[in-house]
Amino acid sequence: DIQMTQSPSSMSASLGDRVTITCQASQDIGNNLIWFQQKPGKSPRPMIYYATNLANGVPSRFSGSRSGSDYSLTISSLESEDMADYHCLQYKQYPYTFGAGTKLELK
Amino acid sequence: EVQLQQSGAELGKPGTSVKLSCKVSGYNIRNTYMHWVNQRPGKGLEWIGRIDPANGNTIYAEKFKSKATLTADTSSNTAYMQLSQLKSDDTAIYFCAMGPIYSPFAYWGQGTLVTVSS
Fold it and tell me: Which of A79, B25, B99, B117 has a 20 to 30 Å separation from B2 between CA atoms?
């Protein structure tokens, strides 16, 4: 199975900060990666498809990038509504696998 | 508008089974794969498996091969997941999720809480 190592597991940041969350894939997944945002008591919401493509309706302060086997989700200027859990998912190969998640909190 | 409506919370005794449903409106499930994902209390997301409703083909994560059974009824546009031999470790929220090929997992159900307790 492909392992997705997500970091950090939690972080606190201030409004307006630039925030980056990373997932490292144990095998080649190409760009077959989705970033999800999940707020308490809610279903996950896809934010980034195919590693770098913004999903419909997602603010432009969110972006995705790839460097080799490292995939990053960046929020350019943190807003209060961005406080949530973030998960990555590889969908290159079955079984699909998620990262362990990152809890983003307000400092 | 695409909507996935999942069945209500379940309380199951150890050793029994439960069957969850996910009824889709606004999208023909024949044209997608339906995935199931769980989330244990305070934990991350875990992919359980997926079904191709057009032909019933299924793929499961290894640890769920003897736990979960995925089925679909295209006439009612509904997907199902049966969980068998329930244990306390199966206590979790279970989500169904689907989407077109260019945006898989675009649409999610609201989740069904399964609590296993004697």
Answer: A79
